[in-house]
Every structure is written in C-alpha cells, then in structure tokens.
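The following block was generated as part of the benchmark described in Methods. Ligand: zinc ion.
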Amino acid sequence: MREVVRREFNRYYSGLEAEELRVPEMPKREFAFLQFGGEVMIRHMKFNDPASLKGYIVENTPAHIYHSSAYYKTPDAVDMNEKGWQSADLVFDVDSDHIRTVCKEKHDRWRCMECGREGLGFPPESCPNCSMKKIDTRTWICEDCLEAAKKEVIKVIDEYLIPDFGIGGSDFDVFFSGHRGYHIHVRSESVRALSGDGRREIADYVRGIGLDVRSHGFRDVKNEILVGPDMKDGGWRGRIARAVYEFVNRSSFVELKEVVAPNVAKNLSENKEKFLKNIASDPPYWGGLKGYTLESLEKIALASIKDLVCNIDERVTIDSKRLIRCPNSLHGKSALKTLRVGYSNIDDFDPLKEAVAFRRGSIRVYVKEAPRVRIGDDELGPLDDKTLEVPLALGLYLICRGAAEPR
Ligand SMILES: [Zn+2]
Ligand SMILES: [Zn+2]
C-alpha cells in the first residue's frame, strides 16, 4: 500500500536540485534515515556535499531524513563518544499538538484504552471515567492549529531571542516541519557551544519555568509593596510589569477574584486607574492598595504571563545531539516538505500551500475516515467510507496519515 508513496517520494527526490538539500557545514553533521515501514533508524551517516546525499536518497527513498543539530569531528563514528562533539545549533520546536486550539474539538478524538470512554478535542491527562492514563489519540492538524504554532514561533523570536538574547536576523532560520509545526535553528557562535545545562536554562527562561517575581524587582516593606519593576526594563522584569499592567487593565472584578482574594480584587478593580497610572509612572510605584501583598502580586503576575510564556517542546531545546529534519525533505507522515520560511514573510506564510511537494496529478483513494482537510487549494471532508479521485498531494497526505488507501 505504501508503494505508491515510495514511488512518488522517489520521483520528487529525483527531480530535486541537489543544492536544495544543502545543510550548513554538512561534513560535520550526522545524517539519519527512517525507511518506509521500517522501525529502525539508519544512523551515523556522513555526506560531504548535497550531491552525494541526493544520490543516497534517490537510491534508498527514505520516509524521513534527518541531520544532527550537532557538529562533530567524526559524524559517522558509530559510538556517540567517539564522534567528537564540537558544538550544536540551538533548536526550538513548536508543535501544534501541544497547543490547546478550539479547532481540536472539530478534528481530534481521544479514546481511553482501559474503559473505552471517548471524547473530542484535546486529550485529558487521565480518563475522566476510570482515571487511567492510557489514552489513545487520533489527531489532525488544520490551518488554525498551524497558525497558533506560527504565533508561538513569532513570540519566541520577537519577545525572547531578539530582545533578550541579542540574536540577530541572520543568526537563525525558521522551518515548517512538514507536518504539525515549526522549528527554529539558531546557529550563532554564542549559542553553539552551550552545554545541556545552558540549553535547559534557555528553555526554562522562555517557558517561564521557576519564575520568581521576587527576583524581578519586587520588594515589600512592612508587608506593603512599594518597589517593583519598570515597564521599560529589559528581560522578564519589564515583561512582568507590562503583563501585569495589561492583565489588570483588561480584567473585571470577577476575573481578578479568580486570581486573588476578594478584598484585593475589589480594591484593585475600584482603584484600577490609579494603580495603572502608578505602575506606568517614572519611577513606577507599586504600592498603595490595602490588603495587597507580595503573595497576591505573585498570583497576579503568574496569571498575567500565561500568554507570554512559550509553548515549546523543551526536550528538543535541551538536547545538544538532536536529529532534525533535513530542509526540503519530505515528511513521511504528510508528504509535505520541510521548508525554510523567510522570517520577514512569516505572517503570510501558508504551510499547507507552500510546503506542497506534489503539484500535479491525481490519485484514486479509499478514505476510511477523515475530518475536513485542506492541502494547497484543495479541500475535502469530513468523510468516511468513500472511494474518490483526489489531487495527488491530498491523496498522498491522507495515505501517509493512515486515513486512506490507494484504489
Ligand atoms: Zn477510562
Ligand atoms: Zn486545528
């Protein structure tokens, strides 16, 4: 059944300019491949140039192609300790599966493997019926999921990498993964030598993990807050100040009451204008509200920053030996390309259109079950138990997702 996918993948790679497979500093990278139907990754390969990589790919037609984020002295050494790790790109992975978008109610399903309880949308951590944690999911992506992932990418870059870490526009590349999300590869010298610990600190920083407002400029004097950060401050100090301002500004008494004690919420909402004016003044003044303590401020700050922390897969960022998808390679679970996204045009980037690798032809498929799916300008579904002729890219997508079979 996968033969048609393999054949089309081969056709795609045969027609690809070898240069499109170029990876920066190729001879220092480990390459790895997953074959169709294969479970074992073929690893520890080395290619000195795009032409030899293309030759291997056309001959073997893998379902997934990866290279190391790391630079090694001997990338093809089989023993990891003998590879001679030199440095590694810093990678951020944003996966729409981890973002709670409302569209998931339309296209995702979960099922408890223990009792059979089923539901729509984002899967619960444990079954609401039997509280077991064996939850099977059937997830799809749509434009809204990918748009949410894109917003996270922009947040990581615009709110953290550029202002807080001094990363410049030429120091990073953004890639659409070819399926559920985006990757950011940072290649500047300043991050390449970072150890796993350093990478973890960066991951925690952008995720707001272990954030202690007391270490960001707040001080209480006789249980009353007088001193706090300035909205113009850099890093988390200013971010918290601005977030608190916006949160208090937009929240009603009822919303504030969900975060802090009723008397504090009442005081805050009754004196909102004065409070906001005070923390926006130069220098800022954070005091003057009855019953308002450092503890209540901490609660407000944590509620305020909820949308500011980044939803990244921290395992990818802390790993200094990660295997990441090769640019312009096909994703075996979607038949879409891993595609570099020009950051200045990211707002207009439509992954479901621009990452389409198969732009001509059609294929007859039997669809077991699928929600509404769009690939390129073609759309179908929701449908089940139907045989129909569809554009090739859409058909291959459904086959790769396991929702259809060629007929
Ligand atoms: Zn259950
Ligand atoms: Zn969606």
